[in-house]
Structures are given as structure tokens and as C-alpha cells.
Write a structure and sequence with these properties.
With 331 residues, this protein is an alpha/beta fold. It contains eleven helices and twelve strands. It has helices at 48-59, 79-90, 108-114, 127-134, 139-151, 171-177, 207-217, 282-286, 291-303, 309-314, 326-329; strands at residues 15-19, 65-69, 94-99, 117-121, 155-162, 184-189, 221-224, 233-237, 243-247, 260-263, 268-270, 279-280. A twelve-stranded mixed β-sheet has the order 7-8-9-6-5-4-3-2-1-10-11-12. Helix 1 runs parallel beside helix 2 (79-90) and helix 1 (48-59) crosses helix 9 (291-303). The longest helix is centred in the middle third of the chain and has 13 residues, at 139-151. Residues 252, 254-255, 258, 260, 272-274, 308-309, 312 line the site of iron/sulfur cluster.
Amino acid sequence: MEKPLFDSHGRRINYLRLAVTDRCNLRCFYCMPEKGISFLERKDLLSFDEMFRILKVARGMGVDKFRITGGEPFARKGIMPFLKKVKQDLKPTAFSITTNATLIGNYIEEVARLFQAVNVSLDALDKERFFEITRRDDYDAVIANIHALLDAGVQVKVNAVVLSGKNTEDILPFVEWTKNLPIEVRFIEEMPFNGTRDSKEISDWNYKKILEHIQGEFKEVEALPVPSGATSLMYQVKGFQGKFGIIPAFSRTFCGSCNRIRITPKGELRTCLYSTKGTDLLTPIRKGMEDASLEEMIRDAVMKKEKDGFAAAAARDGFIPIYESMTTIGG
Ligand code: SF4
């Protein structure tokens, strides 16, 4: 009989975000430096079998919601057979993926069969600003792939990080984009995970400021119900096909109903995005650890899960100001 996974704050943990690689073909300045980071060597990266084992053990503890992240998941060679095996054998009740949609063009039909929803990271609705933010010239491919996904019947959610002085002029065009497109655009507060600077420098565009800015232009904005465990505050402009949302990722107003854990590309279990303390699952797995012991290890780590993202940040050995790159944690 499956014993559900709870933390010491009484929160049921049923959502696992798996980062399948730390590599990415874009260089978003708020995520990693232009030169990139020292990417993991193949031997230090979870293999597909090891990833599948961790998901299987988690599935046995009632973790039924999986999100595939990265880096850029489609930058990992051989990813499609793994995704199909997860869907087929583990039957998650919710299965989704976060991608920058630059490499997804060849997989649209397969992706449509695999995932209910695809989250596309896109921070600008302008080719030049896209280039300025990502330092790559893939804007047209991303837009074309978003439309291809929608045409294939996939629910598309666009994640746009709001960056002071970089893309705030895209906020209103993004909302306007939801007028005639059944798309969900979620504005995300910037977080300090870029491997080079501390949190004091990040954008002052918090969720309140973003909403006020939108309501300044769109007078009939309706607030929509937010399911438990969801991080995005949802809205819809009256008469528009699509919706927009705001994720207070740095304000961390949603931690009370946090239901998630993360597995990094090198097999570390992270119980909070803001914590640096992870539990290494890869070494014991390679030393032949049994599933039952792996399950105990995950339960123990989850029992130590921080109350919220502030507690996790404060627990960082004397508040290390430099945060690692999001591509090593897995967003
Ligand atoms: S900041 Fe940490 S505790 Fe809060 S929702 Fe994110 S992962 Fe959960």
C-alpha cells in the first residue's frame, strides 16, 4: 500500500521537477554567463535509467506529478524514448515539460501525445530584445514552434521573467497576445539564480507592480481561482481567449502549499529552490542501493524540507550571496 510523502509542516509532496541536463543552447543573462558554466561531464550526469529509478521510487510514494526541466531538455540526446517510458510505465496524473522551444520543432506531434501542457520560456515578444536577453538569434523558431504546439492542440504556457530595463515594455504586448490566442502567459519575478551576482541587484518588478502596470492599460481584468499548490496568480482580460498569470517567485507568497521537490541533473534532491543543501542520490544509487533504502533517503530529506523559501535562503551557510545558475538546479 502506497504511503504518501509528507514534510514536517504537514504538506503532501506529490510534485517532482526533474532536470534532465544542465546544458542549454541559449545564454539568458539572468540564468548564466555568456561563456556558459562548467557543464557536468557525462559521467556526473544522471543516466536515463537512474532518472527513471528515482521517478519510479517517487511514484511509489504517491508523487504523481512530474515536470521535466533543464537546462534545455531537448538539448539532451535520446530524451524522447525516456519521456515515452516515463509516461507509459509510471502513468503520472500530470506530466509536463519546460523548454525554450528552440529545438522542439521536430517533436511537435510526439510532444502533443506525451504532454497535457508545455511551458515555454520566452521573455520578449520582440526579436531584438529576445537576442539581447538570450544572446542567441532563435526568436523566429520559438514563435513558430509555439504556434505549431497550439495547432497540435497542446496547452501552451509562456513563462516570461520580468527584467527591469530589459523587457518591461513586453508586458502589455504579452497580455495583448492572449486576446486572440488560447495561450497562458505567466510573468515571473526575477530570481537571483544566475551564478554571478547577489539578490540585491535583481528586478524591482514584483507581482504587485506587474499587476498594477497591466491594470493601468487593461481596465477589465478578472482574477481567476488558483488551485492549491499552484504558484501562479491567474487573471483574464474580459473577452480575451487566453489568460495571464503572475508568479511571485522572489516574493515567495505561495510556500505554504508547496508540494514540490527537485532532482538536479547530477542527482541531488533539493527540497526547496532557495536551498543549497541537497541530498546526493546518485552516489548511493551507483553503489547499488536498494529501492527501499532510496525511498527512506527521500523521506528523510523531505522531513527536513524548509518551511518556505526564506527559511531555505537563510539556512545557506551564513547567507552566501552568490546563487548558483538556475540551469544547475533545474528551475
Ligand atoms: S520557494 Fe521553496 S518552499 Fe517556496 S514554493 Fe518554492 S520550493 Fe516550495
